[in-house]
Amino acid sequence: MHFFVTGTDTGVGKTHTVLQLLKLLRANGHGCAGFKPICCGDRQDAERLLAASANGLTIEEINPLWLRTPAAPLTASQIEGVRINIDALTAAFRRVAARVEDVLVEGVGGWMVPILADYFVRDLAVDLALPVLVVARNRLGCLNHTLLTVNSVQAAGLRCAAVVLNDPTTNGDIASTTNADILAKILDVPLLTGLAQESAELPAKWAAISGV
């Protein structure tokens, strides 16, 4: 099964989440791959996804568009004079999906980051027609950002498969120690924690969400 992985913001742990889930899938015998349609800045995230994916794939297949400017794709493409071809990105996804059982597509930045002037990360997820995993960093502001993102995913007509909460209790402040409990009460989608700790409960939680 394929998923689109987005974030409530940049730097919330999308790549870490994808890597952990790829590790879990491979441990259960699945041929799987991470797919990063657009990289902006360095290419380290895509390289890490390639290393964690099934053998035989190339960095160009995992990451078909690399913009060197560390900014939103719309900004980076204008600076570099690159025309972003959405059809080429979706075709690249289909080629990877034809070769493995499970593809985890990592979006760039957050849900509403602009790719074109009138086309956002949200629209790429819609074009791929994938269920969405929303990754949130456990910190002050997490509740608002998570609810806004989940509501926008659902308003786009996509299934929000789960919210992944990174760093569930590491900060020690009131927000970080209560966010998981509050999200579990107010969300209408599953909450997945424990990726960083690789908890023993993780395989069962992921199986309930993904059906694998």
Structure description:
This protein has 212 residues and is of the alpha/beta class. It has a single domain (3-210), classed as P-loop containing nucleotide triphosphate hydrolases (Rossmann fold). It contains nine helices and ten strands. The protein has helices at 14-27, 44-52, 59-62, 73-80, 86-97, 121-128, 142-155, 174-186, 202-210; strands spanning 3-7, 32-35, 38-40, 65-67, 102-110, 114-116, 119-120, 132-137, 160-166, 191-192. A hairpin with a 2-residue loop joins strand 6 and strand 7 (119-120). The longest helix is centred in the first third of the chain and has 14 residues, at 14-27. It is globular, with a radius of gyration of 16 Å. The N and C termini lie close together (8 Å). The mean pLDDT is 91.
Could you give a short description of this structure?
With 212 residues, the protein is an alpha/beta fold. It contains nine helices and ten strands.
Could you name the CATH class?
Alpha Beta
Largest sheet: 6 strands, parallel
**Number of discrete helical segments:** 9
Strand line-up in the sheet with most strands:
2-5-1-8-9-10
* Tally of individual domains: 1
Low-confidence stretches: none
> Could you tell me the mean pLDDT?
91
Strand content: 15-25%
The CATH topology annotation reads as Rossmann fold
State the CATH superfamily name. Answer: P-loop containing nucleotide triphosphate hydrolases
Give the strand tally: 10
The helix/strand series, from N terminus to C terminus, equals: EHEEHHEHHEEEHEHEHEH
